[in-house]
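Dear support,

I submitted the protein below through the web form. The confirmation email said the job was done, but the results page showed an empty box. After a refresh the structure appeared. I'm attaching both so you can tell me whether what I see now is the final result or a partial one.
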Amino acid sequence: MWRSGGWAARSAEPRWEAAAPAEGTRQAERDGAAPPPAAPAAVTPPAPVNALSPTGAPVVVQPRTRAGGAGEGSASEGEGAVGSWRRVLEAQLGLVARGLSPGSLDGVLGSQTRAALRAFQQSVAQPATGELDGPTLDRLRLAVPMLVTRGVREEDLAGLSRVGRTWLEKSQQERLGYETLLERVAEGSQSHPDLLRRLNGGVDWQNAGVGTALTVPNAQFPPPAAKAAFIRIALGQRFLQVRDGDGRLLAHYPCSIARLAAKRPVGELRVELVIANPNYTFDPRMFPESAEGRALGRKLVLPPGPNNPVGTVWIGLNKPRYGIHGTPSPELVGRAESHGCFRLANWNAEHLRSLVWVGLPVWVER
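What the results page shows now:
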């Protein structure tokens, strides 16, 4: 149990409930069997390279100092609305630069941004209000442009393809990659698609070609500041945090939890394995309600890719079929909709992978 002074020992062994996953789709993916192993001043984030593609070559970007329009949730397109939008987005990027994710960047002071603000405020001994007050914004201000622009490259368009809608279709694909340019750019810049549409109002995303100029947030996680000592998952608040041996906050991410309380593990776990770009095993025995699974009567192995049901990272825990993983639907992170596993946006799962190690304690609390 986490207390203000640190972790207190638990007096009893946690009780575990067996997971019983249900069928899923790309819009609300499901957890099944564990995938088999596959082969206070302004902060200056790392240089803005690779801003669009998580796997592409370094990209030279040009700064853009002004937003293209009012942000998501703004009341109007006027200057006042733009100012408020820019203020929130700069704070969101300042949080990312400290390893604290507000979820998909959108320029909106929503619940996930407020949770990240509270975590930041606690870490710098400010009142943890979750409000974007003057002192908080001053500490989060960036020393680099918050928006950058660059052109679409051939590799951004290569490999875009439709993802199958059934388990069998997905298993027959070589890779579960991005379906659209907008999806690829959103993941690469930690952004909500609606934000990118507003920043690039003149772009036809369906027909954008090589050289099309795109404006994206300059989202850059920091390099690891210390070795992780433990992970804390707060079920009630739906976030995952990483701390060092002195209890200092290294990372904070929104996460999804199990829809049913009985399937939420509570207590101490450990990291058992860490896999980048995992495949995924569909086992029809784990999906008794699936008509497709009953008809198939056999396991299927789904290939890796960002649209794999567990995204681009699998961090297996020492409880069968439970893990921390990515997702093909980052905008849905933070809900109670999984079957026991803890879902993060792919970019957050990848950042977490850089911090964890086999044997790392994981504390799950209500």
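Response: this is the final, complete result; the empty box was a page-load delay. The first strand starts at residue 2 and ends at 3.
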